[in-house]
Write a structure and sequence with these properties.
Rossmann fold; about 15% strand
Length: about 240
């Protein structure tokens, strides 16, 4: 946890992610990234000089067999209010629209539902669990599939909703998140989506891993290029 907190604290400070007295919604899908982020933010809350509250939100997409009770139990242990939002995203994307490439529509609907519930709970900031490799993979997704240099930013203000998205784990390597999750036996809810593991992002993950295997400095250089070259990023917090 200390290493996770070190990366998180640096990102939070570099990008001014948290202001005193805020209530922050944490999007908790049930995967290792979002659960680790929730636990780290709950730990940061105890000593960070700017006091803040947390609200954990999970979207139930409508897939059969999804059990979020372990997440609810964890939130109770952490002293974080937990809200499970029932949605019809699965029905719309797979049953009604029958999307062959469902990820874009699914992501749009999830974002809308999460932001709406956050505002309903009095939160104008939403924390998402993207880690360091997510930055790199998103950069290549944009490059290879859209033909442009682009990536999400550590802090993104959505003016139409009045919501600010923050990503406190952008400096944290995925292997550290995995290690933390395994060492602490944190509750993970398996993704029941039929597209899981067979997406463009999964292909980018494999590509980045292959390049990193052949060149150990690959990920560091690409992340550095994102920080130096894209709007919304700051070199060394400057």
């Amino acid at each position: 946890m200390q290493r996770i907190l070190s990366y998180m604290r640096r990102a939070v400070d570099d990008y001014g992610m948290i202001e005193d007295g805020e209530k922050i919604a944490v999007g908790v899908s049930g995967g290792k990234d979002s659960v680790t982020m929730l636990m780290a933010l709950a730990a940061l809350r105890r000593f960070y000089p700017k006091k803040f509250e947390l609200e954990a939100i999970t979207l139930d997409m409508g897939f059969d067999g999804a059990d979020f009770s372990p997440i609810a139990h964890l939130c109770a242990e952490l002293g974080v209010n937990y809200t499970l939002v029932k949605t019809d995203i699965k029905a719309v994307v797979f049953d009604i629209r029958k999307e062959t490439n469902p990820c874009a529509l699914c992501a749009k609907m999830r974002k809308g539902a999460l932001n709406e519930k956050a505002l309903e709970l009095g939160c104008k900031k939403v924390a998402l669990g993207h880690h360091n490799e997510d930055v790199i993979e998103t950069f290549f997704l944009s490059l290879f599939y859209e033909g442009r240099l682009n990536c999400f930013s550590p802090v993104t203000y959505l003016d139409r909703k009045g919501v600010t998205l923050i990503r406190p784990l952008v400096y944290a390597p995925e292997k550290l998140v995995k290690s933390f999750a395994n060492a602490n036996n944190i509750p993970i809810v398996k993704n029941p989506c039929p597209a899981d593991g067979n997406t463009k992002r999964e292909k980018m993950k494999e590509f980045v891993l292959q390049q990193h295997t052949e060149d150990k400095g690959f990920k560091e250089r690409v992340f550095g290029a994102v920080v130096r070259g894209l709007d919304g990023w700051k070199l060394n917090g400057e």
